[in-house]
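--- STAGE predict ---
source: upstream dedup step, 1 unique chain passed
mode: sequence only
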Amino acid sequence: MNATPLHLACYDHWVNRLPYGYLHDPQDRQNWILDEDAAPIVRRVFNSVIAGKSVTQIANELTAEKILTPTAHWTKIGAGMPNKPNANPTTWAVATVINICKKEEYMGVKILNKTVKETYKSKRRQAAPEDRLVFQNAHPAIVDEETWNLVQRLRKTKRRPERITGEPNPLTGVLFCADCGAKMYHKRA
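--- STAGE serialize ---
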């Protein structure tokens, strides 16, 4: 089958979408390998959430330390998609940190059919949890399953800072009432 350069460019653009922290294996593009520069940043994001930091605090810390954003990192190593460069490649968005926290791929699973189109005419894609294909241990894990599940549970709970200390209580969302099972909150009088 003859493919025009336009089709190859579009296909290559679609294939390059890997989660931050992974790269294509040079011998086999279907395999993912760890990006030794980005994987510690992903681990740091997960550990910071567990430590009680908000996604805004994490994004501000990464920005203050001048760590390249995922797009800037991929552009630097030559694995990125051609797009116009960011004015400040070290400014982390809160949405980027949230997306890193949500990705199941960091546990070493590969997921296919995450979304589907209702019809071929539709431009919108919808989540399809019943049609997903999950392959365990498809590539090296950056975080273990226990850490990923803990981060998901902590992200569901609002962790507001106390007025006195300015820090959220580390037990918020972790302790539950033994009688009714409701979340317990720390409150100072």
